Automatic annotation (TrEMBL):
Keywords: DNA-binding, Transcription, Transcription regulation. The keyword Translocase does not apply. The keyword Translocase does not apply. SUPFAM superfamilies: Homeodomain-like, Tetracyclin repressor-like, C-terminal domain. This is Transcriptional regulator, TetR family. PANTHER family: HTH-TYPE TRANSCRIPTIONAL REGULATOR BETI, HTH-TYPE TRANSCRIPTIONAL REGULATOR RUTR. It holds the Pfam family TetR_C_33. Residues 42-61 bind DNA.
Amino acid sequence: MFTSYTKRFALQTKSYHHGDLRSAILNEARTILESQGEEAMTMRRIAEGIGVSAMAAYKHFANRDAILQALAIEGFNKLARVTSRARKKNKLPADAQLVAIGVAYIMHGISHPEIYRVMFGQLTSGITDAATKSAADEAYGVLCDCLRDNAEHFGFEKKEAETHAFSVWSMAHGMTSLFVEGHARTRNFKTKAQQRAVATRGAELVARGVSFRGGNGASDDR
């Protein structure tokens, strides 16, 4: 019986090419993470879900944390694509680009709360892993590039772009975290339309603040 069990798993493992098995592991891990949470995502459950032995999974990832790290990298890469696409859509003016990035960021985090937690959780705090840092920098770079490219419009020097980017990101990350942790639901922002509306309002206020700092915004005191 044991021999039959071993052969069955060996055959199943061989049905995957090397790269395909790694992708299958990540896909299954992501499915478990997003549907049941991080605690449910174990190496054994991932292996069982794709029909391979745990040993086969360990050939690609040293442990569960390594899979979470890979999912965090994927998360940052996807966030970079989503925000970059939002910025470039329809050749938006400078202020609208900033709003589009903010809204895309917040809505993406709301749609993938478990991945967002992994990205910014303890695993990636004080990032030292080169691949994770590179992916995180690329995502953050979309915002920095927007502000740097439009520095003249906003009224500051290009070298100040990253300082402003941190302020803008703080708003987007803060609002996203409130939604991800469920705090915003108590404020009647339960539907996607309500969430997008408040995300847009927040991003517009921040964009206006960036412009106002440079003298391009209008004051309410007239």
